[in-house]
Amino acid sequence: MIRRTHHARDRGIPDATVARLPLYLRALNALAERGTLTVSSEELAAAAGVNSAKVRKDLSHLGSYGTRGVGYDVQYLIYQISRELGLTQDWAVAIVGVGNLGRALANYGGFVSRGFRIAALFDADPAVVGERIAGLVVEHVDALESVIKDRGISIVVIATPASAAQDVCDRVIAAGVTSILNFAPVVLAVPPEVNVRKVDLSIELQILAFHEQRKANGGPIMADQWPDEVGHVRERSMGAGS
Ligand SMILES: NC(=O)c1ccc[n+]([C@@H]2O[C@H](COP(=O)([O-])OP(=O)(O)OC[C@H]3O[C@@H](n4cnc5c(N)ncnc54)[C@H](O)[C@@H]3O)[C@@H](O)[C@H]2O)c1
Protein backbone atom coordinates (compact mmCIF):
# COMPACT_ATOMS: atom_id res chain seq x y z
CA MET A 1 0.00 0.00 0.00
CA ILE A 2 1.32 3.44 -0.85
CA ARG A 3 1.09 5.68 2.21
CA ARG A 4 0.95 9.05 0.54
CA THR A 5 0.87 11.03 3.75
CA HIS A 6 4.35 9.71 4.54
CA HIS A 7 5.76 10.94 1.28
CA ALA A 8 7.62 14.21 1.27
CA ARG A 9 6.90 15.25 -2.29
CA ASP A 10 4.97 14.34 -5.39
CA ARG A 11 7.90 12.28 -6.64
CA GLY A 12 7.31 10.00 -3.69
CA ILE A 13 10.44 10.16 -1.59
CA PRO A 14 9.53 8.85 1.88
CA ASP A 15 10.03 11.26 4.79
CA ALA A 16 12.32 8.70 6.47
CA THR A 17 14.58 8.80 3.41
CA VAL A 18 14.56 12.61 3.38
CA ALA A 19 15.64 12.51 7.03
CA ARG A 20 18.64 10.34 6.14
CA LEU A 21 19.79 12.33 3.10
CA PRO A 22 21.61 14.93 5.26
CA LEU A 23 23.52 12.07 6.95
CA TYR A 24 24.68 10.78 3.55
CA LEU A 25 25.56 14.28 2.47
CA ARG A 26 27.69 14.89 5.54
CA ALA A 27 29.49 11.57 5.05
CA LEU A 28 29.99 12.23 1.32
CA ASN A 29 31.40 15.70 1.94
CA ALA A 30 33.92 14.20 4.37
CA LEU A 31 34.89 11.59 1.75
CA ALA A 32 35.22 14.27 -0.94
CA GLU A 33 37.46 16.33 1.34
CA ARG A 34 39.77 13.33 1.60
CA GLY A 35 39.84 13.09 -2.18
CA THR A 36 37.69 9.93 -2.44
CA LEU A 37 36.14 9.63 -5.90
CA THR A 38 33.82 6.63 -5.52
CA VAL A 39 32.14 4.97 -2.57
CA SER A 40 30.39 1.63 -2.13
CA SER A 41 27.02 1.45 -0.41
CA GLU A 42 28.74 -0.44 2.45
CA GLU A 43 31.31 2.32 2.95
CA LEU A 44 28.69 5.03 2.76
CA ALA A 45 26.50 3.06 5.17
CA ALA A 46 29.31 2.80 7.71
CA ALA A 47 30.19 6.49 7.37
CA ALA A 48 26.56 7.57 7.78
CA GLY A 49 25.66 5.07 10.50
CA VAL A 50 22.87 3.46 8.43
CA ASN A 51 22.65 -0.11 7.11
CA SER A 52 23.73 -0.65 3.52
CA ALA A 53 20.44 -2.08 2.20
CA LYS A 54 18.75 1.10 3.43
CA VAL A 55 21.39 3.25 1.72
CA ARG A 56 20.79 1.50 -1.61
CA LYS A 57 17.02 1.82 -1.26
CA ASP A 58 17.22 5.48 -0.23
CA LEU A 59 19.50 6.38 -3.14
CA SER A 60 17.32 4.49 -5.60
CA HIS A 61 14.60 7.03 -4.78
CA LEU A 62 16.93 9.65 -6.26
CA GLY A 63 17.45 7.51 -9.36
CA SER A 64 20.98 6.67 -8.21
CA TYR A 65 21.92 2.99 -8.39
CA GLY A 66 25.72 3.07 -8.39
CA THR A 67 27.90 0.93 -10.65
CA ARG A 68 28.43 -2.72 -9.77
CA GLY A 69 31.95 -3.25 -8.44
CA VAL A 70 32.66 0.50 -8.43
CA GLY A 71 29.99 2.07 -6.29
CA TYR A 72 28.68 5.61 -6.41
CA ASP A 73 30.43 8.65 -7.82
CA VAL A 74 30.97 10.82 -4.74
CA GLN A 75 30.67 14.24 -6.43
CA TYR A 76 27.64 13.29 -8.47
CA LEU A 77 25.89 11.87 -5.42
CA ILE A 78 26.65 15.07 -3.49
CA TYR A 79 25.07 17.03 -6.34
CA GLN A 80 22.01 14.75 -6.51
CA ILE A 81 21.34 14.84 -2.77
CA SER A 82 21.94 18.60 -2.59
CA ARG A 83 19.52 19.15 -5.45
CA GLU A 84 16.91 16.91 -3.83
CA LEU A 85 17.23 18.74 -0.50
CA GLY A 86 16.99 22.14 -2.19
CA LEU A 87 20.55 23.04 -1.25
CA THR A 88 21.68 24.11 -4.69
CA GLN A 89 20.15 27.48 -3.85
CA ASP A 90 20.82 29.69 -0.83
CA TRP A 91 18.22 30.11 1.91
CA ALA A 92 17.89 33.22 4.02
CA VAL A 93 17.41 32.35 7.69
CA ALA A 94 16.35 34.55 10.62
CA ILE A 95 16.99 33.81 14.28
CA VAL A 96 14.45 35.10 16.79
CA GLY A 97 15.73 35.25 20.37
CA VAL A 98 19.40 36.17 20.62
CA GLY A 99 20.27 34.84 24.07
CA ASN A 100 22.79 32.11 24.84
CA LEU A 101 21.51 29.76 22.17
CA GLY A 102 20.60 32.30 19.50
CA ARG A 103 24.02 33.90 19.59
CA ALA A 104 25.79 30.54 19.51
CA LEU A 105 23.78 29.67 16.39
CA ALA A 106 24.43 33.10 14.85
CA ASN A 107 28.17 32.68 15.40
CA TYR A 108 28.29 29.17 13.97
CA GLY A 109 30.08 29.29 10.63
CA GLY A 110 28.88 25.93 9.37
CA PHE A 111 25.48 27.04 8.07
CA VAL A 112 26.73 29.26 5.26
CA SER A 113 28.82 26.53 3.68
CA ARG A 114 25.67 24.39 3.62
CA GLY A 115 23.60 27.03 1.87
CA PHE A 116 21.97 28.73 4.86
CA ARG A 117 22.69 32.43 5.20
CA ILE A 118 21.74 34.08 8.48
CA ALA A 119 20.05 37.25 7.19
CA ALA A 120 18.49 38.71 10.35
CA LEU A 121 18.60 38.49 14.14
CA PHE A 122 15.71 39.61 16.34
CA ASP A 123 15.23 40.12 20.04
CA ALA A 124 12.72 41.87 22.29
CA ASP A 125 15.20 43.06 24.89
CA PRO A 126 16.30 46.70 24.31
CA ALA A 127 19.67 45.80 25.86
CA VAL A 128 20.26 43.26 23.08
CA VAL A 129 18.72 45.17 20.16
CA GLY A 130 21.44 47.11 18.34
CA GLU A 131 24.19 44.71 19.36
CA ARG A 132 26.40 43.47 16.53
CA ILE A 133 26.76 39.69 16.35
CA ALA A 134 28.48 37.79 13.55
CA GLY A 135 28.31 40.84 11.29
CA LEU A 136 24.60 41.49 11.85
CA VAL A 137 22.92 44.12 14.00
CA VAL A 138 20.20 42.63 16.23
CA GLU A 139 16.85 44.14 15.28
CA HIS A 140 13.75 44.63 17.40
CA VAL A 141 11.21 41.86 17.04
CA ASP A 142 8.63 44.55 16.15
CA ALA A 143 10.28 44.66 12.72
CA LEU A 144 9.84 40.91 12.20
CA GLU A 145 7.15 41.01 9.51
CA SER A 146 8.69 43.74 7.37
CA VAL A 147 12.22 42.32 7.51
CA ILE A 148 11.01 38.81 6.64
CA LYS A 149 9.34 40.20 3.53
CA ASP A 150 12.12 42.60 2.53
CA ARG A 151 14.95 40.06 2.85
CA GLY A 152 13.08 37.06 1.48
CA ILE A 153 13.54 35.07 4.66
CA SER A 154 12.21 31.55 4.22
CA ILE A 155 13.33 29.75 7.37
CA VAL A 156 12.98 31.07 10.93
CA VAL A 157 14.81 29.67 13.95
CA ILE A 158 12.98 30.23 17.23
CA ALA A 159 15.33 30.50 20.22
CA THR A 160 13.13 32.52 22.57
CA PRO A 161 11.85 31.35 25.95
CA ALA A 162 8.96 28.89 25.63
CA SER A 163 6.46 31.54 26.76
CA ALA A 164 7.16 33.71 23.69
CA ALA A 165 7.51 30.96 21.09
CA GLN A 166 3.89 30.57 19.96
CA ASP A 167 3.44 34.30 19.51
CA VAL A 168 6.66 34.53 17.47
CA CYS A 169 5.55 31.49 15.48
CA ASP A 170 2.13 33.02 14.66
CA ARG A 171 3.77 36.24 13.52
CA VAL A 172 6.32 34.65 11.23
CA ILE A 173 3.63 32.46 9.66
CA ALA A 174 1.46 35.53 9.11
CA ALA A 175 4.47 37.07 7.34
CA GLY A 176 4.53 34.12 4.93
CA VAL A 177 7.15 31.80 6.46
CA THR A 178 6.34 28.09 6.20
CA SER A 179 9.51 26.55 7.67
CA ILE A 180 10.38 26.86 11.34
CA LEU A 181 13.16 25.33 13.42
CA ASN A 182 12.03 25.44 17.02
CA PHE A 183 14.42 25.18 19.96
CA ALA A 184 11.91 26.34 22.58
CA PRO A 185 10.58 23.49 24.70
CA VAL A 186 6.97 23.85 23.60
CA VAL A 187 4.81 22.20 20.94
CA LEU A 188 3.88 24.88 18.41
CA ALA A 189 0.40 24.93 16.90
CA VAL A 190 0.71 25.57 13.15
CA PRO A 191 -1.46 25.17 10.06
CA PRO A 192 -0.83 22.02 7.98
CA GLU A 193 1.20 23.74 5.26
CA VAL A 194 3.85 24.85 7.78
CA ASN A 195 6.80 22.56 8.50
CA VAL A 196 8.18 22.68 12.03
CA ARG A 197 11.32 20.82 13.03
CA LYS A 198 12.10 20.80 16.72
CA VAL A 199 15.40 20.30 18.46
CA ASP A 200 15.41 19.41 22.11
CA LEU A 201 18.67 18.23 23.57
CA SER A 202 17.10 17.48 26.95
CA ILE A 203 14.85 14.92 25.26
CA GLU A 204 17.91 13.28 23.74
CA LEU A 205 19.55 13.25 27.18
CA GLN A 206 16.43 11.69 28.69
CA ILE A 207 16.53 8.90 26.11
CA LEU A 208 20.20 8.28 26.94
CA ALA A 209 19.34 8.31 30.65
CA PHE A 210 16.69 5.68 30.00
CA HIS A 211 19.24 3.39 28.33
CA GLU A 212 21.85 4.07 31.04
CA GLN A 213 19.34 3.08 33.68
CA ARG A 214 18.51 -0.11 31.78
CA LYS A 215 22.19 -0.99 31.47
CA ALA A 216 22.74 -0.33 35.17
CA ASN A 217 19.80 -2.54 36.08
CA GLY A 218 21.26 -5.28 33.93
CA GLY A 219 18.04 -6.78 32.65
CA PRO A 220 16.78 -6.93 29.10
CA ILE A 221 14.64 -4.08 27.83
CA MET A 222 11.04 -5.17 27.88
CA ALA A 223 8.98 -4.50 24.78
CA ASP A 224 6.43 -2.55 26.78
CA GLN A 225 9.07 -0.30 28.36
CA TRP A 226 10.60 1.32 25.29
CA PRO A 227 10.47 5.09 25.25
CA ASP A 228 8.29 6.56 22.55
CA GLU A 229 9.76 8.96 20.02
CA VAL A 230 9.67 11.90 22.41
CA GLY A 231 11.40 9.97 25.13
CA HIS A 232 8.55 9.27 27.48
CA VAL A 233 8.64 5.77 28.82
CA ARG A 234 5.39 4.06 28.02
CA GLU A 235 3.92 1.84 30.64
CA ARG A 236 1.37 -0.04 28.61
CA SER A 237 0.43 -2.22 31.53
CA MET A 238 -0.78 0.92 33.31
CA GLY A 239 -2.76 2.01 30.28
CA ALA A 240 -0.93 5.33 29.97
CA GLY A 241 0.18 5.06 26.35
CA SER A 242 -1.65 6.51 23.40
N1 LIG B 1 16.49 22.68 22.12
C1 LIG B 1 17.53 22.61 22.89
O1 LIG B 1 18.25 21.65 22.91
C2 LIG B 1 17.76 23.78 23.77
C3 LIG B 1 18.96 23.97 24.43
C4 LIG B 1 19.11 25.12 25.18
C5 LIG B 1 18.06 26.02 25.27
N2 LIG B 1 16.88 25.75 24.64
C6 LIG B 1 15.74 26.67 24.65
O2 LIG B 1 16.07 27.74 23.75
C7 LIG B 1 15.50 28.94 24.21
C8 LIG B 1 16.59 29.98 24.40
O3 LIG B 1 17.50 29.55 25.41
P1 LIG B 1 18.63 30.54 25.89
O4 LIG B 1 19.45 29.83 26.88
O5 LIG B 1 19.31 31.15 24.70
O6 LIG B 1 17.74 31.65 26.64
P2 LIG B 1 18.09 33.19 26.87
O7 LIG B 1 17.20 33.63 27.96
O8 LIG B 1 19.57 33.35 27.00
O9 LIG B 1 17.67 33.88 25.48
C9 LIG B 1 16.35 34.09 25.09
C10 LIG B 1 16.32 35.38 24.31
O10 LIG B 1 15.01 35.54 23.76
C11 LIG B 1 14.66 36.92 23.88
N3 LIG B 1 13.21 37.06 23.81
C12 LIG B 1 12.29 36.90 24.77
N4 LIG B 1 11.06 37.12 24.29
C13 LIG B 1 11.19 37.41 22.98
C14 LIG B 1 10.29 37.73 21.95
N5 LIG B 1 8.97 37.77 22.13
N6 LIG B 1 10.80 37.97 20.72
C15 LIG B 1 12.12 37.95 20.49
N7 LIG B 1 13.02 37.65 21.44
C16 LIG B 1 12.57 37.38 22.67
C17 LIG B 1 15.27 37.34 25.20
O11 LIG B 1 15.41 38.75 25.27
C18 LIG B 1 16.59 36.62 25.16
O12 LIG B 1 17.61 37.40 24.56
C19 LIG B 1 14.75 28.59 25.49
O13 LIG B 1 13.40 28.33 25.15
C20 LIG B 1 15.42 27.33 25.97
O14 LIG B 1 14.57 26.52 26.74
C21 LIG B 1 16.74 24.68 23.89
Overview of the molecule:
α5 links the parallel β3 and β4. α1 packs across α4. The protein is 38% helix and 15% strand. By secondary structure, the protein is of the alpha/beta class. It has 3 domains: 82 residues, Arc Repressor Mutant, subunit A; 108 residues, Rossmann fold (3-Layer(aba) Sandwich), CATH 3.40.50.720; 37 residues, no CATH class. The N terminus and C terminus are likely disordered. The chain binds nicotinamide-adenine-dinucleotide. The site of nicotinamide-adenine-dinucleotide (NAD) has 25 residues, from α5, β4 and α7.
Provide a brief overview of the structure.
Belongs to the transcriptional regulatory Rex family. The chain is of the alpha/beta class.
Structural class: alpha/beta
Q: What gap, in angstroms, lies between the N and C termini?
A: 24 Å
Largest beta-sheet details: 6 strands, parallel
CATH-derived topology of the largest domain? Rossmann fold
CATH class (first level) name of the largest domain: Alpha Beta
What is the strand arrangement across the widest sheet? 7-4-3-8-9-10
User: Number of DSSP helices?
Assistant: 8
- SSE run: HEHHEHEHEEEEHEHEEH
Counting copies of identical and different chains, the oligomeric state is: single chain
Uncertain ranges: 1-10, 234-242
Q: Total number of β-strand segments?
A: 10
Q: How many domains make up the coordinates? A: 3
Secondary-structure arrangement, i.e. CATH architecture of the largest domain: 3-Layer(aba) Sandwich
Residues in helix, %: 25-40%
CA radius of gyration:
21 Å
CATH superfamily of the largest domain: NAD(P)-binding Rossmann-like Domain
Strand content: 5-15%
Indicate the overall shape: globular
The pLDDT mean sits at 87
